[in-house]
Amino acid sequence: MYFVFFAVVILAAVIAGAALYGSLRIHPPSKKLPVQGQEFPAGFLWATGEDAYQHEGGNLNNDWARWS
Predict the structure, then answer these.
(1) Using the 8-state DSSP alphabet, how is residue 63 labeled?
(2) Which has fewest Cβ within 10 Å: 18, 19, 42, 62?
(3) For residue 26, what is the DSSP state?
(4) Who's near 55: CB < 8 A, 6+ residues apart?
(5) Model pTM?
(6) Are 57 and 64 in contact (CB under 8 A)?
(7) Are 53 and 59 spatial neighbours (Cβ–Cβ below 8 Å)?
(8) pLDDT tens digit string along 11-41?
């Protein structure tokens, strides 16, 4: 019984350590891309959107619930 308890505790510590290491380590900067002379075409419109909660978060009070 104690073996299972300690195995679970050690596994939880390893998982927590891996998560902490992944969140705290410093990532190298991304490679810089040349942007001189590049521009968007005339009339280009910027837009943003976010609906992850609606279709991935389990929100059943939305228009897309009937399609899933």
Answers:
(1) T
(2) 42
(3) P
(4) 62, 64, 68
(5) 0.34
(6) no
(7) yes
(8) 888 888 777 776 777 778 888 888 888 888 9
